[in-house]
Each structure stands twice: as structure tokens, then as C-alpha cells.
Amino acid sequence: MDVRTSFAAQTYAQARPATQPSPSAAGASGTSGGFARALDDFAQTMRAGEATATAALTGGADPHALVEALAASELAVETAVTLRDKVVEAYQEILRMPV
Predict the structure, then answer these.
(1) Is position 22 within any domain?
(2) Is 54 within the bounds of a domain?
(3) Is the dihedral of CA 29, 19, 37, 82 positive or negative?
(4) Which of 9, 44, 56, 97 would bridge with 66, disulfide CB 3.0–4.6 Å?
(5) Residue 39 sits in which domain range?
(6) Is the pTM of this model over 0.70?
(7) Which tops the pLDDT comparison, 10 or 93?
(8) Distance between terminal CA atoms of the chain?
(9) What's the domain count of the chain?
(10) Residue 91, burial from CB neighbour count under 10 angstroms (0-12, 13-18, 19+)
(11) Residue 17 falls within a domain, yes or no?
(12) Residue 92 DSSP symbol
């Protein structure tokens, strides 16, 4: 089996739950558990990207794996920035409300 195919399948399997959250994530554990899990996933994605970049610089990873890791890291950062912008926008909207 090709290592790149296996890595691509693993990356897809990790990214798939982000588009299909489990029903128990919002129900049983509450919203704080979901945020904590999202932050852990973000940190894990960034660590994996850094590890792959380091391995590619030392010759331990192929360029395709590096591109996949960088794309996943870029998507994670863009998602975090979008979420931050929405939170700031909501906070500003609350500040504009008459008391």
C-alpha cells in the first residue's frame, strides 16, 4: 500500500467529523465541551503541520504530505479567524444595544 494514499485517507477521516458533528457533542457534554474539543483539534492540526514541515525539511516526508499538512493548517487558521471575527461582531452588536 502506498504511504501517501494511507496518509490521505487518515487526513480525510480526521477532517470528516468536522463537517458531520455527532449529536451527543451538543447534547450531553454541553457547549463548553464542544469548544474545548475544537481547540484541541486545532492545536493537534497545527502540531501535525509543524511536524510534517520539519520532516519535509529533513527529508523524512514527501512534498505531497507537506502540501496536505499546510492546507489543513491553513484551513484550521482560517476557521479560527472566522470564528473570532463572528464573536467580535456579536460582542460589538451587544455593545450597540440601547440600555
Answers:
(1) no
(2) yes
(3) negative
(4) 56
(5) 28-96
(6) no
(7) 93
(8) 64
(9) 1
(10) exposed
(11) no
(12) H
